[in-house]
Amino acid sequence: MKTRTKMASIFFTSCLLIILLLGTAVYYSFDKYSHVDFDKRVQTRAIIASKYYLEKDTNKSEAYKMIREQFFEKLHKEKEMVMQLESNKSFDFYASKYHLPEELLIQINVKGKATLRDGDVVYSGLKYSQGDKTSIVVVSAENYFTAHHLAYLRNVLLIAIGLGTLLTLYVSIYFSTHIFDPVKKITDKVRQISTDNIHLRLEEPTNNHEIGELASTFNQLLDRLETAFEIQKNFISNASHELGTPLTVIIGEADLALRKERSSEVYQEAIQNILAQAERLDHITKSLLFLAQSGYQGDKPTREIVRTDQLLWDVKETFDKLSPKNHIIVDLNEVPEDPKRLKIMGNRQLLLVAFSNIIGNACKYSHYKPVTISIKATDSEVIMVIKDQGIGIPEEEISQIFNPFFRASNTQLFEGYGIGLPLSKNVIKMHNGQIKVDSQVGVGTTFTIRFPHILAKKTISV
Q1: Exposed, middle or buried, 446 (CB in 10 Å: 0-12/13-18/19+)?
Q2: From CA 179, how far away is CA 7, in angstroms rounded?
Q3: Cα(358)–Cα(22) distance, rounded to whole angstroms?
Q4: Backbone dihedral region of 418: left (phi > 0), alpha (psi from -120 to 50 degrees) or beta?
Q5: How confident is the model at residue 121 (pLDDT cuts 50, 70, 90)?
Q6: Do 383 and 341 meet the contact criterion of CB atoms below 8 Å apart?
Q7: CATH 3.30.450.20, applies to 304-452
Q8: Single GO molecular-function term (predicted)?
Q9: For 392-427, how does the pLDDT look when each residue is reduced to its tens digit (9 = 90+)?
Q10: Which residues pair with 377 in a beta bridge?
C-alpha cells in the first residue's frame, strides 16, 4: 500500500470515527435530556392539578387554573385523574378503573409521589391529604414530542454523517494526493540525476520548511557524492600516474639492457635504476595499503596509554638523526603540571606515523627553518600545535590537502606522493581526534591536533 493511500485511509477512518462518536453522543444526550424534561413537565402538571382540584381556597384554585391554562401547553393524550381512596377498596381496583399501573399507585401511597414510564406514556402522581381524607392525583401523557424530535434528530444526524463521510473522503483523497506532490517532484528529479549529471540540484522551496529541509539534505548529499566522485577520479588518475612512472622506467631500462650485449658497468647502472624505481614503487604501494587500512576500522588496532609529549620527542629525535639540518623546537611553556592530561588511549606506532608525516612535511617545506611544536591541555583535550615557516598552502587548496595524491600547486620542487597527510588524518580520526590547518603562502603553515585525554569527563570509545 502506498503511503498516500495509507494516509488517506487513516485520516478518513479517524474522521469517520470522530463523526460517529459525536453523533452518537449528541443523540444519546438529547434522548436522556428529553425524557427527563418530559417527566418534569408531567410532574409539574400533577402538582398543579392537585392544587386545582383539591385546594379548599377558591381564589387559589382559580389562580392555579389560570396558570395552567395560560402557561402550560396541553400534552399529547394528557389525562388527569383524581381518586379519593377508600379503605375497603384495593389499589388493584383503582388501577383497573382508571387504567393505571398498580405499581404506580403503591409507590405514590408509600413515598407520597412517584413517576413511572411505560413505553411512551409517562405517569406522575402524588398523594394529597385533607383531614381524614386521602386522595391521589395522577397525570398521564404520551411522550409524542420527544419521540418525534428524536426521530427528526436521528434523520438529521444520519444525513449529516453521510455528508460528512463524503466530505471527509474527498478531503482525504485531495490532501493525500497533493500533500505528496513536492515529495513526488523531488523523487522524479532525483531519478534524473546520475553520475553523468551529478551536478544537478533540487529546488529548495522557501514556503515549506519540511520539504525545503528535505531538498536541502538531498543537495548536501549530492554535494558530498560529487566531491567523492571527483576525489575518486583524481585518485585513480594520480595513482595511475604515480604507479605508471616507475613501471615505465623499469620496463624501459630492462628493454634497453636486453636489446644487445653491453658492458657490466652499463648492466649495473641499469639494474641500479630498476632497483631505485622498484623501491619507489614499493613505497607507493605500501603507503596506499597503509592508507586503506587506516581508513577501515573493522579490526581496530591495539590501544594503550600513550604520552603525547613523549611521542613528539621520539619523532624529533628520529628526524634529528636522519637530518641534522632540521631545526625542530619543542615548546614546553604551556605543558600542564599533571602528566595525566598529556595521556591518551591509542596505538603508538600509528600515532608515530601520523606525527612523522606532519612534522616531516613541516621540515621539508621550510628549507630547514625552525619548526615549533607546542603542547597544552584543557579539562578534556590535549592539544598539539605544529607550526612551520615554510612555503605555505594556497588558501583555495587547503580543503584538498587531505585528499589522496593531492599536492599543492607550489610544491613542484619538492618530492612527495600526496599520501602522508591523508594517512595522518585517518589515524587521528581513528583516535577520535581532530586536525585543523591554517596557512598563508610565503609565511608558513600551522597544524592544530586535538585528542581527548584519559581524564576527559566524557568516556570516549576507542
Answers
A1: middle
A2: 10
A3: 74
A4: left
A5: confident
A6: no
A7: no
A8: kinase activity
A9: 999 999 988 888 778 888 888 887 777 788 888 888
A10: 382
E strand spans, 202-325: 304-307
Q: What is the pTM of this model?
A: 0.46
Which CATH code for domain 209-294?
A: 1.10.287.130
Q: Which alpha helices (H) appear in 260-386, and where do they start and end?
A: 264-294, 308-322, 348-364
* All structural domains of the chain with their residue ranges: 3-153, 209-294, 304-452
* Angstrom distance (rounded) from CA 141 to CA 81: 12
CA-based nearest residue to 452, from 436, 437, 430: 430
Most confident of 208-212, 318-322, 366-370: 366-370
pLDDT in tens, 242-276: 667 678 878 888 888 888 888 888 888 888 888 87
d(CA 378, CA 343): 12
User: How far apart are the C-alpha atoms of 155 and 150, rounded to whole Å?
Assistant: 9
Question: Cell numbers of 325, please?
Answer: 639540518
Q: How far apart are CA 80 and CA 54, in angstroms?
A: 13
Max Cα–Cα distance, the chain, nearest Å: 160
The answer to whether 420 touches 435, Cβ cutoff 8 Å, is no
Q: Which of 452, 302, 315, 331 is nearest to 383 (CA)?
A: 452
Higher pLDDT, 212 or 312: 312
The length of the chain is 462
Q: How many CA atoms lie within 13 A of 401 on its CB side?
A: 26
HEC-encoded secondary structure of 441-456: CCCEEEEEEEEECCCC
Q: Is the dihedral of CA 155, 157, 160, 162 positive or negative?
A: negative
CA of residue 334 relative to chain centroid, distance? 43
φ/ψ of 234, rounded to 5, equals -65, -40
Nine-digit cell string for 59: 381564589
Residue 94 near residue 83, CB atoms below 8 Å: yes
* Burial (CB count within 10 angstroms: exposed 0-12, middle 13-18, buried 19+), residue 114: buried
Give Cα separations from 19 to 11, 15, 16, 160, 168 (angstroms).
12, 6, 5, 9, 10
pLDDT of residue 348: 84
CA distance 308 to 86: 117
Count CA atoms within 13 Å of residue 46 on its CB side.
Answer: 28
d(CA 62, CA 40): 23
The separation between the first and the last C-alpha atoms of the chain, rounded to the nearest angstrom, is: 44
